[in-house]
Amino acid sequence: MQVKPIGNRILVLPVKEEEVTKSGIVIASSTEKEKKARGKIVAVGSGEEITKLGLKVGDEVVFGKYSGDEVEVDEDGKKVEYKVLYVGRDKDESDVLAIIE
Q1: CB within 8 A of 28, min separation 6: which ones?
Q2: CA dist., res. 41 & res. 70, Å (int)
Q3: Closest CA to 11 of 65, 73, 53, 66
Q4: What is the pTM of this model?
Q5: Distance between alpha carbon 65 and the CA centroid of its chain, in Å?
Q6: Residue ranges of the domains in the chain?
Q7: For 66-93, what is each residue's pLDDT tens digit?
Q8: For residues 63 and 24, is the Cβ–Cβ distance under 8 A?
Q9: 9-100 adopts what CATH topology?
């Protein structure tokens, strides 16, 4: 199955990050405070805002941990979770906060 976002939306594969303390203890994601998340764009819609910002497949972006909508896709018998994020005109209406260069 292939997912193609429409309008001012992008499909992002979130990067799972584990936080490790200096002593080597891994902190579970359920105990983390509200952190921003990162992900790689795997598909883009054809909206005007996406064109203005120059977002493209392969870009890495920062978004709110609870932003967007989760979509589960079956790829070769394996379930993969993606995020569908909205790209708006300003910070208050956009799920995407920054592009990582």
Answers
A1: none
A2: 14
A3: 73
A4: 0.80
A5: 9
A6: 9-100
A7: 899 999 998 888 999 999 999 987 777 8
A8: no
A9: 10 Kd Chaperonin, Protein Cpn10; Chain O (2.30.33)
